[in-house]
Write a structure and sequence with these properties.
about 170 residues, alpha+beta, four-stranded antiparallel beta sheet, 4 helices
Length: about 170
């Protein structure tokens, strides 16, 4: 009987507030709650930082894509130009975002008729696009309208001679 009284007193004491851990007690201690909140907070901060980095990367890629589209448009103007002099002089135009593009080309003939080595220079200014500034490309373009008729005929005749020589060497 004395044992039962001691056990019931122990249970009552264990249930009383501020008296430590008891096996039958339910709930969390303040330290456990604080640690859980800290873990959630740190995870939330890491996810927020990752999300901000993704947004910044999308913005940079978007600006670079806009720049490449503007350069592509300027290159299309060069490719559409039938007059060699106008192509070498180039052109310039304003961009929708307030920027400006100026392009020109240096055109040099090759040893093959109607084939030209073109150095395309494009300058982007006055915009916030990534890597604004010069864009230089070297292209090989076949343009019969840029050729001098007499010079193209001479080059074609030279090629015909070379083909004839090669064919004669092959025939036994």
């Amino acid at each position: 009987m004395r044992r039962r009284a001691t056990e019931s007193a122990g249970r009552a004491l264990a249930r009383s507030p501020g008296h430590g851990y008891a096996p039958g007690r339910r709930g969390f201690t303040l330290i456990e709650v604080m640690v859980a909140l800290l873990i959630v907070f740190v995870a939330g901060m890491a996810l927020t930082a990752a999300y901000i980095n993704v947004l910044n990367a999308y913005a940079v890629v978007g600006k670079a894509t806009e720049k490449s589209e503007d350069v592509r448009f300027a290159r299309a103007q060069l490719l559409a130009e039938a007059d060699r002099t106008k192509a070498e002089e180039g052109n310039n135009f304003d961009l929708p975002d307030g920027g400006h593009i100026a392009w020109k080309a240096k055109i040099e003939p090759t040893d093959i008729a109607d084939l030209f080595t073109v150095t395309f220079n494009c300058e982007i200014t006055g915009t916030d696009k990534v890597n604004t500034g010069p864009v230089n490309e070297t292209l090989m373009l076949m343009r019969p309208t840029w050729s001098d008729g007499a010079e193209a005929s001479k080059l074609r005749d030279k090629i015909k001679e070379r083909i004839t020589e090669v064919q004669q060497k092959r025939v036994p």
